[in-house]
Amino acid sequence: MLSPQVVIIGAGAAGLMCAMTAAARGRRVLLLDHANKAGKKILMSGGGRCNFTNMYCEPGNFLSHNPHFCKSALARFTQWDFIALVAKHGVPYHEKKLGQLFCDNKSSDILGMLLDECQQAGVDLRLDTSVSAIERAGSGYRLTTSLGAIACESLVIATGGLSIPTLGASGFGYQVARQFGHELLPTRAGLVPFTLTDPQLKTLCTELSGTSVEDCRVSCNGQSFLENILFTHRGLSGPAILQISSYWQPGDTVSIDLLPHVDLPEWLLEQQRERPNSELKTLMGEIFTKKMAGLLAEHWFASKPMKQYTPAELKAIAERLSDWQLVPAGTEGYRTAEVTLGGVDTREVSSKTMESLKSPGLYFVGEVLDVTGHLGGFNFQWAWASGYAAAQYV
Ligand code: FAD
């Protein structure tokens, strides 16, 4: 029977960080994954270039029912610690925007770095391994796995959330949490595109599919993000939409200011004064693409020469462009979501050690916990920080 001191289930971002750090402390670590490859999400991330952290990472970038929980781990393994690791391995990277750090080359640079560290520290990594049962045995745990029975002192659950099942996601971590008496907070897809069913809206989005609009302000439930939006065949996507999706609940209205940097009432009056014979859609074509201006004119307001609009009509146009209100039919769900909101209730986990307050020796790290970052490298920073925190105590 294998008898490591520490078993980590899930060789994703958090599991790899936890394994390499615990093994570097001298712990005998077995890292298991049911997939045929470690870190599949790392490989897919950031469009293949892994947005591995964010220079401006702070607790305010995370959603959780317990917003204080993430603070301690984030402070003990910061974005600068991860950047130092990346630099030590000579992985070239750059800031894309808003503090988001991406690999110059490929995400496999980050995965390779983590696997290298695991190997150097002596982590025993076993892929294609399933775990069918876990039970308490003395002060530790006994696992029934496809490798046979395994006993350990500390068991770390690093199995992530539910997003993208084809990349190995499973609800396993939630089952284990429930088995050992933990409360689960309802899970839902986050950082995910919206779908629309309203026929008029859907037609507009389909016709504009592939068009993006820069720097829109998208707001919902008191939160707002200033970023690009993207029209898709099914609805709306793009960074600002993905960000707000984490704050959206079914039935909520989302407001989009398509031109937050323009004083629209003033701009429309100015155009009316200075270009009275120009059609509205021609003028809007100077701001948006011609196609978008034409479609907005078709769907939202009859286009005519500027001099023909009444002040009330101009006011309504300004309002429509700066406060486009829509109620998404839903989201694309876990199939395309980058993250899972909710999960293991952090009120029953130590924020210092990530250890269960219900079952000693059991730890939860990464996305399986009810901690979800904004888009921009924050989710990986949580995986690194929580994995590192647990590794000090396993
Ligand atoms: P994961 O990385 O999901 O790892 C969980 C591991 O557990 C997997 O290897 C899985 O195979 C394994 N596992 C699951 N169930 C079992 C089981 N029953 N038995 C054994 N093993 C199991 N975040 C960023 O910060 N920057 C980005 O650029 C970014 N891009 C993303 C792009 C995509 C397409 C997606 C889906 C997500 C992206 N994210 C990004 C989010 C980020 O990938 C996750 O938040 C992060 O990987 C979570 O780390 P984790 O270790 O908790 O879980």
UniProtKB/TrEMBL annotation:
Stored InterPro entries: BaiN-like (IPR004792), BaiN-like_dom_sf (IPR023166), FAD/NAD-bd_sf (IPR036188), RsdA/BaiN/AoA(So)-like_dom (IPR055178), RsdA/BaiN/AoA(So)_Rossmann (IPR057661)
Q: Which residues form the RsdA/BaiN/AoA(So)-like Rossmann fold-like domain?
A: 5-392
Q: Which SUPFAM superfamilies match?
A: FAD/NAD(P)-binding domain (SSF51905), HI0933 insert domain-like (SSF160996)
List cofactor names only. Answer: FAD
* Protein keywords: FAD, Flavoprotein
Q: Where is the signal peptide?
A: none
Task: Tell me the ranges covered by the RsdA/BaiN/AoA(So)-like insert domain, including all copies.
Answer: 188-339
What is the name attached to this protein's record? Uncharacterized protein
